[in-house]
Amino acid sequence: MTWRFSILGPLAVFEDQRSLPLGAPKQRAVLATLLLERGRAVSRDALIDAVWGQSPPASAAGALQVYVHGLRQVLGPQRIETLGTSYRLALDEDELDAARFDTLLEQARRALAAHDALAATRDASTALGLWRGPALADLPRDMPVAALAATLEERRLEAIELRNDAELALGRHDGLAAELPALVAAHPFRERLREQQIVALYRSGRQDEALAAYRAARRVFVEELGIEPGPRLRELEAAILRQDAELAPRPASADAAPPIALPAPPTPLIGRDAELTEAETLFAGEQARLVTLTGPGGVGKTRLAMAIAERIAPGFADGVVWVDLAPVRDPALLAQTLADALGLDEHPQGAREAVAAHLSARSMLVVLDNFEQLSAAAADVAALLTAARGLRLLVTSRSALGVRAENELLIPPLALPAVTDSLERVAASEAVRLFVARARAADRGFALDAELAPVVAGICRRLDGLPLAIELAAARLRGIGPRELGGALESRLATLIGGPVDLPSRQRTLRATLDWSHDALTEPERRAFAWLGVFAGSGSRDAIVAVCGPESREPLGALVAASLVRRLDGGAEERLGMLETIREYALERLGARGETDEARERHARQFLALAEHGRDMILTGRAGQEIYAALDRDHDNLRAALDWAADAGALELEVRLACALRQFWLVRGHIAEGRRFFERAVENTEGRERRLRAEALMHGGPFAHRQGALDQARAWWEEALTLLRELGDDAGVARCAGELGAVAYSAGDLERAAAASNESAAAFAALGDDMRVAIVEANLGEIELARGNLDAATRHCEQAVAIQRSLEDHDQLATTLHGLARVRVRAGRDAEARELMRESLQLAGEIGYREVIAELLADVARLALAEGRPDRAAMLAAAARATRLEIGVRLGDEHAEAAELHRQLREQLGAEALAAIERQAGEGGLGAAVQEALRALE
After folding, report:
1. Would you call 324 helix, strand, or coil by DSSP?
2. Spatial separation of the C-alpha atoms in residues 335 and 330, rounded to whole Å
3. Is 396 helix (H, G, I), strand (E, B) or coil?
4. Residue 830: how many CB atoms within 10 A of its CB?
5. Is 298 left (phi over 0), alpha (psi -120 to 50) or beta?
6. Which backbone phi and psi does 468 adopt, to 5 degrees?
7. Digit-coded pLDDT (tens) for 72-97
8. Does pTM surpass 0.85?
């Protein structure tokens, strides 16, 4: 795993080339301060000063903890160490771009001092290439830490001046004379830049302009600073007037101006900062000889290769050559194509030998674009590297070459905005920046505003961040508006057509680009590719082989190598997935093969087995975090299986799958979604087999109940009760009785609630179902608490806790411990209540039981308010409210309690301060709130 931290531009962190979300400005400011210290410890007071200045708010210390926790969630808990009252960011020197910049700049200084101007130019240019814009450009300018960017900017100017000196030493004065006016205008008081401008003009034969540049410099210094220019500038004027021989133009050697034969890119490169930096580091710092840019068609490998080659070109004394291999199909023609690109007209000894001889004594970069159809020539490439020590190769291909010297750089799609991002964050994302640039080319009146931002973000997400797809989509704005375009993209392959005529034909439609890759596959690879289309998001290798058949195992590797399938991080298991645009194409191919129904049914049955295994583990109390995590990873596949079953009329499969997912949905907070799936299942079972309908009604009731739809929940459970009595299902009857007791409790009918729950508890006891007995006992504890019978409430809850501990039923134990804690609070036994809440919160946090977490956060908030910590209470209450809204829980008493708590907080803190704390809580996320609640319970 490779990490890159960047402060030479907008603050950024890249993990294996993936840009990580760094949170709100203040959280980014904390990270920037730690990075600027380069692994040294920073006190909490210093961090507060850097973020808030000399007048921090009272909540600054708590907010700092939230920001540090948020960064640990992104970077990993080991990255930020706590040392007493200080924090330290664990950092390797080569992980920070500013550290690499300093190293390269020092190398350039030493090279220039040793009169190696070419090496100085190369190192200084590489150092400057690490910059992605003004240092820390994304931090508000009024934030104290942002002021430290000036020090970094000074270092950049030093590098520019050093590079200019090296360029002058190489005789490249003509180019400098054209570049320096803009630099001088941006930094009018830097004497060294003015000296370099004057020298470049003089050596270019423009003596009058050189003297005019001196006079302009003197005027600026006298009129604006009230001082004369320094002695070096004054001596330079005198040297020009006497035409000093030391100022004479220095002839450029053949090495000083190497040929650079690169295609002129038709449009600017947008984004790709991380990939540019990674490639530069490989060539410069790690001395890589062969770097291969791999990735699916349309990801922008060719355009990125142009940018990389242009940026590193100064480091090659004999220049850069670009070789377009797209028209070449025969691997035997690689040598001749190279010879033509190098201008080797005659080579009687053979093209391969001529190319090797030509390159053997040269320092040159050769770019081989579109190598994928010449994979059989990879050995020839390796032989060429052996013959030419000064040769460096940059290759673009949809698959790696597989030779020893190769450094593969997988090019991902462009970074996408999150669904909830603000206008500023949407506008800053790479994918949206590309869309906006191309949209303006198609429609000069196009402007991204708050109303269009979610539309454009949705388009880019639907296109997977693929540059080619985004460019084709933006071009459609000549005829339709953004909203219409978003709707049309339901069929990406039919919409994304009509690319510019100067593109290769294979890139004028997205389908043509994918055809180019698909046509190169063998028949077993084509079948595996088509069948993989039924997997939504991704799938484990074992699941894929189970669905696609054992014959797919070997072709999967070829599909990964061809960049049609991606390896994804699945923790302990290997997972494979497709971009959605590629998946749509795969499904088209599956349909053309006439195998869609077979593939989808096998997929649905595979994930039914996964869901029922997870349910069995949960029901036996053996479900830990790993079971829920496994269901999380395949939630998209489970949804797809449910949708297919419903559409195909596979009623038994649909009901079994929904029922198997019931507890997973409840724990993970998919309340609204679970309700939709069960409402469809209930509708589909109308008038059908009684067993299936009873199961759908019984298992679907909790979702309506938790959303406050008490009438619907009651009607479903009453109908299920009738059906289950007819079927003689005593366990189902007991379960529905208990659920009806829960509805009565929510409706405020405590007598009916108690009667139904006691009936249910007796029935489960007779059946020997201790797990269900414990659930109903916990419910009876809640009922007795509401009645004010604390002894009875204690007895029921303690009995439930004892059973659940013996069964190791952690899901239900988390809920019951919280209920017992509420009883302890009512009894005035706060110390015991806090310990129970702490255990409950730890259990709920381990399995991600979001509803229970939200309830606990609200209760801990009330404790914090009673202890005189309204700031902590406000943070926890905000997190509880946000979580309830997100999962769709709507129960009357809890909302009334939350409203009263919010009123008290507003009264104590004031509306403005309360709003500020709530914003900070939103930035920190649920994990930060859980940690804060655990600290409050210590």
Report:
1. strand
2. 11
3. strand
4. 14
5. left
6. -60, -45
7. 888 887 888 888 888 999 888 788 88
8. no
